[in-house]
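Slide 14.
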Amino acid sequence: MKAILLACGSGICTSTAARVKVEKLLDANGYKGQYKIEQGKIAEVAAKSSSFDFVIATTMKPDGVKCPFINGICFLTGVGVDQVTKEILALMK
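Slide 15: predicted structure.
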């Protein structure tokens, strides 16, 4: 079971939009039931990151992140989705 932290500025708005896309991506690639996503504020990421396999955020990477960090802004803009998809799927293995 992979633990994924999905973060944005407030922990609600853009992380929810990205979460829907990440869940569809993971489920479509055979990972349904093999992950747990928690949403949070970017300000919480450094402190929480050691408890997660990786972080996807729709904002800039804060200092002190202790696990792999993926910039998920592409899930909002549509630019660079293919590269980020590869990174996420590689981390799921």
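Speaker note: Strands lie at 2-8, 35-41, 54-57, 69-71.
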